[in-house]
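Quick log. Single chain, no ligands specified.
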Amino acid sequence: MSFVDDRGTLLHVVPDGAEGPVVLFVQGLAGAWFEWDPVVPLLSADYRLVRFDRPGLGWSQQEGARAPRPQTLVGEAERLGRVLDGVGIAADERVVLVAHSYGAFHAEAFARLHPERVAGVVFVDASVEPDITPAAGGPWPGRAWTVGQRLARATQLTGLNQVVGPAVRRLVYQAASTTRRDPDPELGRTVYRSSRVARAVANELASYRAAAVALLELRCELPFPEVLVQVLVGAAGAGAGGHAADWLERQRGFAGLFPGAEVVELADAKHLIAADRPDAVATAVRSLGF
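-> predicted structure:
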C-alpha cells in the first residue's frame, strides 16, 4: 500500500503500469480507487496509471483532526497536481485525465489552472450543472456541511455507519449500473463501513453546489487548453433522476465547452460506466493518441 504526503495528510495512491504516458484517474463523489479496477488491465501494459483517494475516502487519511476540512474546487484541483508530484511525475510531463461524475469538476478546473500539465481529458458521465447560479452555491461552511457532519457523527456513535455505508453502496450499483457489477464487493463493504468515510462523503455532498458555482466562475476567467477531449455518456437511463433524454442533452451541451470534443453515447451503460463498459473508457484514452 502506497501513500503520498499531501501537506500533512497521507493520501492513498495506487500506481499501475511501468512505463508509457501517464493517466490520472479521478473518481466521482464518494468514490474509491477500486472503482477503476475494471479499466486498469485494459491499459496497464501501455500506460502509467495513477489512482488515488481523496482525503477521508478509501484508505486516505482525513484532512483535519476532528472533522474534514471544507472542500473547495481549486483546493481539489491543486491536489491533483500534488498527487502527480508525489508519485514522481515531472511538472513538464503532460498527463491524460480520466474523470467520473463529480471528479470532472476537479479535472476541468485542473486543466484550466494548469494547461501545461494536461495532454487530454476523458470525461466519464461528468457532473454537469447548466442551470447553476452563483446564488445557489451558498456560503461555506454552510448548514448542509454542519448537518452532514452531525449525521455522520450520529451514525458513528450508534454504529449505523457499519450497515448504512455498505447498504448505500449496494443501492448505488443496483440503480446506476446496467451490470450491477461491483468491482470488489468485499473491499467495498470494508471501506464503506468506516465512519471516516461517512464524514468524507458528507463533506463532498455539502461541497457539491459550491464547487459547481466555482467552476462556472473559473470558466469565465481561464480558457480550457487546446487538447483532445472525449465525453462518455451513460445513455441507458442514468443521470438526472433517470431522465435519459435530458441527461444526454446536458452532456452534449457540456461537450460544447470543448472545441472538437467527441461525444460517445453508450446505450448499454448507466452512470457507472467504468463498471458497465470499461472497454469504452480504455478506448477513449487510446483515442487521444498517447
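The radius of gyration is 18 Å.
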